Amino acid sequence: TSIPIRKYQNFWFPEAHLPGIMAIRQHFNPRPDDLFLISFPKSGTTWLKALAFATMTRTHYPLDRHPLLSLNPHDVVPFMDDLFVAGQASKLEALPSPRILATHMPYSLLPDSITGSGCRIIYICCDPKDVVVSLWHFSAKASAAKGRECFPFDKFFEMACEGDFPYSPIWDHSLQYWKESLKRSEKVLFLKYEEMLEEPAANVKRLAEFLGCPLSEEEEKEGVVEKIISLCSFEKLKSLDANKKGSQGIAVFKVANASFFRKGGIGDWRNHASPEMAQKLDGIVREKLEGSGLTILGVE
Ligand code: A3P
User: Bridge partners of 38?
Assistant: First the structure.
């Protein structure tokens, strides 16, 4: 990408993000009821943040006067790494329990204090081809804001295939959480963006059950699931002032809130990558996931 990246313990990271990751490894104090939302960048993090927050707090806020109507999902569920980098770790301590926090860290880099503390983790994964397209647009916008150019798409795509790409290798990132979700299904929930688009109601119910707050019969009758889905939908969030204005992130990597709502949906890779390029990345991903039981809709 056009941002400098560095390899650390088998994964590549934006240099600007590494201090936050180190700080979490050394200084983060988890609470047993913390919930972590984790993803490879551009895999549906924003949507997961909105859905998990809306589901978990549904009895606190009326859905028609909800914080998500006036705040960006990243303001409601912060990236803990960013807070450390910004010197705002005290904000993490000040958050009331149960906290919902996010990171893009690979499982192998999470400190034992998180993995061994009984905290819940929800991971979201998405077809790597769509992830690459989304990240390319996202990086291009961030670069343009700084007067820099992003790599051409073909080069960017090739870097993803090689695995030297921020937070990559993407297949290892997802596989680590997949394996953990098989071992500890009560603590690690593995979601797929494509399945969530196909069956949002079933996935919101899954989320609620995993979070220990399953939907009651009465809530089902009142259409609470549908209300959550509608509040968190791409169209709804994109239309809100809070998401049209403002920005996120640390000074070195600031991005407009609007950049998190580009196109939504799946399959935009078809408008960017040739069938040969797609075949190459699919082939690599298929091979890497072989035998794991993890399948990704769209990887052929
Ligand atoms: P596109 O760039 O393909 O549009 P992340 O949140 O991990 O940064 O991922 C960003 C991708 O999720 C973007 O994909 C974005 O449009 C999509 N997205 C954001 N909000 C969404 C929502 N509420 N529902 C579905 N997809 C959403």
Answer: 103, 123
